[in-house]
Amino acid sequence: MAARSRFNPDRGLTRRMVGTMFLIGLLYVVFVGVLIALLKGAWPLIVLVAGGMFVVQFWFSDKIAAYSMGAREVTPRQAPELHGAVDRLCALADMPKPRVAIADSDIPNAFATGRNQEKALICATTGLMRRLEPEELEGVLAHELSHVAHRDVAVMTIASFLGILAGTITRIAMWSGLMRGGGRNDSTGLLLLVIPLVSAVVYVISFLLTRLLSRYRELSADRAAALLTGRPSSLAAALTKISGQMSRIPTRDLRQAEPFNAFYFAPAFSSRQSLGRVLSSHPTLQQRLDQLGRISQQLGRP
Which residues cross the membrane (predicted)? Predict the structure, then answer.
């Protein structure tokens, strides 16, 4: 998946991405099939909405995500240090330079979006750039660029979107059932019970599949970034610093950022939110630091 760059390829990540997309795709084909079987008269609307939303999400997912997270594209004159770091890393990785953006947020974080390398965007928050040293910032940016090179950004965007699709189709199906049955007969009552149950099962399965992929892809990006830059200690320092700073961010700001955790370099929650860590899209800080420590030993850098 990373043949066009010098980022360390990860066949394990490739297998997981293919497997996750196959299983989620199969899951939603079954889901739509069940809805069509239950609501025979509404199948054209269900198919139209499902297909239309998927096409819109595929073509505009990067713009939607960037806008939602407050990204503002910047020129080399507006952000020379950030552009300089991205330029160096792209030259080192032999990959096309993505668009560069800044999000005006005190939460120290970064993310990448885009369905391919040509449409990719990499964004750092003002809080991240203010807190990190240049080598630490390059480590974080290399991590995000590896997501672009491995194309797992597009996979995660599509996989996450299917959960939204399930909820939308469920509401349309229930509305269609009520309109068709008048909301009074036994079949309508059964639909009101079965459809939300099926939707919930689909959402839970897709949630677990995307979480498993997300945790692995973060470890893969850490590994690829550390090997590309040759400075795993800088990435480890950035991880430690960012995780320590999260507890100082107001809880309200963390909650607003939480829906986008799957895209972020580090999850936006404080150490007090234990449930959030259990359901996190990222591996634990200790897992990430342990891996970087092993890479340091391999590279001969204590």
Answer: 21-39, 45-62, 153-178, 190-213
